[in-house]
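Tutorial, part two.
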Amino acid sequence: MDTLSLMKTRHSVRQYTEQEIEGETLKMLKNELSDAEEKSGLKFELILNEPCAFNCMLAKKVGFKNAVNYIAVIGKKTLQNEMNAGYFGTQVVLKAQEIGLNTCFVCGTYSKRKVKAELQKGEKILCIIAVGYGETQGIPHINCSIDKLCDFRGDMPPWFMKGMDYAMLAPTALNKQKFCFVLRNGNEVKLTDRGGSCKGVTLGIVKYHFEAGAGKENFKFV
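Running the prediction step on this input gives:
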């Protein structure tokens, strides 16, 4: 399945079965994590069969169940690193979808102190990604109207419209879609945040989606 098709079929999943990730599926997931580490400069640490991180009131409140496998994305806490966590984390979750797994980006609704990750001096957990075999494939989130998520003058170019279509498929913190794509000078695009939690990770995720939909050859980020 191609990237755009995966973006359409992949939804956030919080309830998982007890089926373990193993065999060829585990191998392919680990290979994707290695690739994301190399490209991002961050650590993508896979932690399996560990129930403590989601054993807290916040996780239970938003409906996590059997979330015992997750990927800790680790690095120094800068806006660029947070965006890389979202951007290359998206690469990982789409690969997971392709190989039959389900995922959910998580920034706040878990217990950071219980995460079984190895942190070096100066490193922080930028986000974690729950992964496993979902009880369902999840459901599409509700979108804001497109005019609240972008700013342009004149007619909207087809490539920009397609980029927005796929950016709106992206998971965002609390599904608030606190982002805006600004189009100027024909093909210059600026991505800005509109506050909210987990903004760096959110911007990285929607940037990946927009690029895939719009086509990198049609515009440049400024």
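The longest helix spans residues 79-98. In part three we will examine how such features are distributed along the chain.
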